Amino acid sequence: MMKDLSVRKQWLIPAFGYAVSILCLFVVYRGFDWEAEWPRIRQTPVMYVVAAVVCDVAVYCVQGWRWNELLRPIGQLPVWRTMQAIYIGLFANELLPLRPGEVIRSFLQARWTAVPLSVVISSVVVERLFDGIWLILAFFVTSLFVDLPPLLVIGSRILGILLLVLGGTLAFAILRRAAAEAWMSRTIWAQGFRHLLDALESMGRSPSFYRSFLISFLYLALQAGPLYFIQLGFGLHLSFGECAAVLVILRLGSIPPQAPGNVGSFQALAVLGVMLFGVDRQAATGYATLLFLVITVPLWVVGFFALLATKMKLSQLRQAVEPEL
User: Fold this and answer.
1) Nearest Cα to 245, choosing from 284, 276, 282, 266?
2) How far, in Å, are 54, 269, 272 from residue 250 at the CA level?
3) Cα separation of the two ends of the chain
4) Burial of 237 (0-12, 13-18, 19+ CB in 10 A)
5) What is the secondary structure of 222-245 as a DSSP string?
6) pLDDT single digits (tens) 301-324
């Protein structure tokens, strides 16, 4: 009975995510005039599509650079190798439910650097903390110029609270290490926790920690590039700042559980975002469709070849990860 309950819980969140994505696709494409808008999508100038793809690839180059900077005090790989782990993780997120990509890329980085998996995962948590801080700042700036939907405002506040809790916990563990170790000494994870604190302390006291925080701004800013170039090709006449506001909406909306690749919810949030700036529904849907293809297809291709280089199947890699958790 307990096993059945566990299986139900395991599939409850993915089922919810698929349901949300299907609903979003229905709402977005209901009444969409494919006959009128598909030629417009196909006629988007190639130079803008190429610029968007290059910008999107640069995002993950910067992410690899940042991750290397963060891990510099405890072990690192060549940036191209770190990028390979990132792309494999992204590829996994595109195909598998529950977004296992973060764990998979951490597993690969740990295997290739011989750094404990718990330490590498902690660096990913720090990355997400950096992203959240910059995202909240971007959301605040955006809210000064755009009336955002109440649901996104509530979501940003929840994210802000979670960031405060996470940041406070990490600060307590590092700054009040003796108290943290005393509390954890009663658990079976005491030894591993000390190794984790050593790594966090090494990362936190290194100049590369602060460089990785600043790099996180570039990482977020570059993500607005594909949105900007595709809207130029689509003739929406949005400014870079307005595209950055749409990006904030997309990033906040990607937090709840959803189908692999954020399909459905991505289109819905992109449509919602550009319509806030006066774009009509048909043009907004065509733009969201093209943007999704431009961002997703290169990721599939690069992720596939990155995985191919490991000589492992995605299912094998997932099975290899599970015993390590």
Assistant:
1) 276
2) 20, 6, 9
3) 24
4) exposed
5) HTHHHHHHHHHHHT----HHHHHH
6) 999 999 988 888 877 787 777 665
Does 67 score more than 80 pLDDT? yes
Amino acid making up residue 263 = V
Amino acid, res. 75: G
CB 265 within 8 A of CB 292: no
Tell me the DSSP string of 85-134: HHHHHHHHHHHSTT-THHHHHHHHHHHHHT--HHHHHHHHHHHHHHHHHH
Q: Which residues contact 89 (CB under 8 A, 6 or more apart)?
A: 101, 102, 104, 105, 106, 108
38-43: average pLDDT: 89
The pLDDT tens digits of the residues spanning 278-291 come to 899 999 999 999 99
How far, in Å, CA of 206 to CA of 322, rounded? 32
Reported pTM: 0.83
Residue type, position 249, single letter: I
Tokens (6 digits) for 165: 């809790």
Mean pLDDT of all residues belonging to the chain: 81
Domain count of the chain?
A: 1
Query: Which residue range(s) make up the domain with 76?
Result: 2-324
Q: Which residue has the tokens 């990132």?
A: 86
Read off the tokens for 225: 């590039």
What b/e string do you get for 241-275 counting C-beta neighbours within 10 Å, with b at 16 or more?
ebbbbbbbbbbbbeeebbbbbbbbbbbbbbbbbbb
Write out the two tokens for 5.
């309950």
The rounded distance, in Å, linking the Cα atoms of 61 and 294 is 17
Residue with tokens 């994505």: 21
Yes or no: say if 238 and 274 are a contact pair by the CB < 8 Å rule.
yes
> CB of 88 within 8 A of CB of 105?
yes
pLDDT confidence band for 125 (50 / 70 / 90)? confident
Please give the residue that has the higher pLDDT: either 138 or 301: 301
How far is residue 288's CA from residue 227's CA, in Å, rounded to a whole number? Answer: 9
Q: Answer yes or no: are the C-beta atoms of 299 and 59 closer than 8 Å.
A: no
